[in-house]
Specification:
Length: 200
């Protein structure tokens, strides 16, 4: 009988991966909460329970961390959207997603919510790697919305998805910007009414 050689797990590598995961998770929340310019390496490392000096064992630069954080935040948001869509009948999926996206709960959950609406106005001033990560996740969101359209696969569905995503994100930005809760609610309600899909 030939003994099977099992590779022992590298404890050091797995510990580094766990630390890396904590940093990215902390950064993904921080960028949504404080913006890119308001997110410092020292604060992220503290939130992750690590020393500032350990940062460069994980990232070549602050921009590299921000790009990974942007990608993570977008992935989390899109995964949540997909899970909402998966829980309802196909003909109700997009409406369900839009209601959650424009809900009071999402409005007040900037730290864990959609990073596009939290950071959209800052994107033109970010590095190419941060913008690339964000663009990839925006395209993913548009595709997710397009797949819920009755005419999915046709150019009209993609066009409506572009308008739907742009309107939802813009509405959430405005609803968060104003200090008038009645206006905030009215913006979200009007958008939901305007984007309502026709029956059939």
């Amino acid at each position: 009988m030939i003994p099977i050689m099992r590779k022992k797990p590298n404890i050091r590598t797995s510990a580094k991966e766990a630390s890396h995961e904590r940093i990215v998770s902390a950064a993904a929340k921080a960028i949504r909460r404080s913006g890119y310019d308001g997110t410092g390496v020292a604060d992220i490392m503290k939130d992750a329970g690590l020393t500032h000096g350990a940062f460069y064992a994980h990232f070549a630069s602050r921009e590299a961390m921000l790009a990974e954080a942007a990608d993570r935040a977008g992935a989390e948001s899109n995964a949540l959207a997909a899970s909402i869509i998966a829980t309802v009948p196909a003909d109700q999926a997009l409406q369900a997603f839009m209601r959650v996206y424009l809900s009071k709960e999402h409005l007040e959950s900037i730290e864990t919510g959609c990073p596009i609406s939290a950071l959209g106005s800052e994107m033109p001033r970010q590095s190419p790697e941060v913008r690339r990560a964000t663009t990839r996740r925006i395209k993913e969101m548009i595709d997710l919305v397009a797949r819920q359209m009755p005419d999915w696969g046709q150019s009209s569905a993609h066009e409506r998805a572009l308008v739907t995503v742009a309107t939802m994100v813009g509405t959430l930005i405005l609803a968060r910007a104003v200090d008038d809760s009645t206006l905030s609610d009215a913006l979200c309600d009007a958008t939901l009414k305007s984007l309502a899909l026709p029956a059939g």
